[in-house]
Amino acid sequence: MIIIALSAFGGGILAAILGWLDxxxxxxxxxxxxxxxxxxxxxxxxxxGYQLSDGPLTRDCLVALLSGAGWDAVTNRTLxxxxx
Length: 84
Prior knowledge:
- The structure is a single chain.
- This protein is an all-alpha fold and about 80 residues long.
- It has one domain (about 1-80).
- Helices cover about 85% and strands about 0% of the residues.
- The longest helix is centred in the C-terminal third of the chain and has 26 residues, at about 60-84.
- It is elongated.
- The mean pLDDT is about 80.
């Protein structure tokens, strides 16, 4: 369960770093902290849901990584759209 949570958390962090690199903006710790929070929630949510599964496989870690990245991307876009 910890491996799955860390995979989802890592996916969110990876998405945040790639988003920052793509934006070519100066690093903003406040925005990155928000992404860390979203990544933590993704990891927590995925780990809670994963308790019902049969054990961590490579496939499960990859799905968690991609889900964490998706969670960060969707929440940032949603909050960005609401702020406009």
